[in-house]
Amino acid sequence: MLKLLAASRRRPGLTRADYQRYIEFYHGTLAREHRSSLRAYIQNHVIDSAFGTLQDSTHQQIADRDAVVELMFDTFPDMINALEPKEPTPVGPDGQFFADECNSITVMAEEEEIPVACPVPSFNPGLAGLKNQGGMKVMHFVMRDDSIYPEDFQKYWREAHDEALEKAPYAKSQLRRCQANWRLRLNDNDAAARKHFKQVNPPVYNLVSCHWYDTMEQAGAFREYHEALQKSSRKFVNWSKSFFLMTKQIVIIRDTDGYRPAA
C-alpha cells in the first residue's frame, strides 16, 4: 500500500486548538464525503515537538508543525486520482482555511514494521486508543546527510536504531510499536502532491519513523532513545534539519480488511 504523509503548520491567526479542531471535524468530514480511492486517512495532532539539536544556535528551517496526515492508497494512480480529481471537490481548496500551505512537507513512502521487545498486550484498558497501538505516537522526520547514498541510508539507520535501543533500556522496554516509512523514488514524480498541498521548495526527508508508547508519560523514553541515536558513530543524518513530533493519533477513515465501500 502506498502512503502519503503531509506535515503542516497552522495558517496565521489560528491557535493550535483552532487548527486541530478544524482539520478533525470540518476537513475530516469533507475527506469522508469525497474520499475517492482513499483507503485510510489518519490525522496525527501535535502535542509537543523538538527541531534540530541543542548544539544549534538557531533553527536552520521552519520549526513549527501542528499535525501530520497519513493518506493510504492501493496504487499510485489511485493517489493521483484523489489529489487531482476529474471533477473538482472542496477538499483541496479547503487547505487555505487552516494551513500555511507553502511550507507543508510531503513524503511518499512505503511502510516497514520494525520488531519491538515489548509490544502492547491484548488487554490494555485505557491506554491504547486502537488495537496494537499505544496512546502516544512519536513521528521522527529524519533527513539524510548529503554524503550518504539513499541505498546506504536505510541500512545505517536500522543499525543505529538497534544500537540506540540497546543503549536506552527504558526506551526499549516502553516502545510498543515501531514503523519505518521509507521515502520512495515516486517522490521524483510528486508534482500532484506539491500542487495539492501548495508547496514551495519543500525539504526532503528520506525517513519518517513512528514510535508508539502507552501514554504521554513515556515521552522521556523516546528522548532517551533519540539521544542515543544521535550519538551514533556513523554520520548519516543531518540532525540540524531533522525533527520529531509527539502526537495523538486520530482515525478519520480506515477500511477494515476485506471491506471496501463504494467511492
Automatic annotation (TrEMBL):
Signal peptide start and end residues: none
Gene Ontology MF terms in the entry: oxidoreductase activity
Domain spans labelled EthD: 11-100, 148-237
Domain of life: Bacteria
Pfam families on file: EthD
Name assigned to this protein: EthD domain-containing protein
Species, as recorded: Rubrivivax gelatinosus (strain NBRC 100245 / IL144)
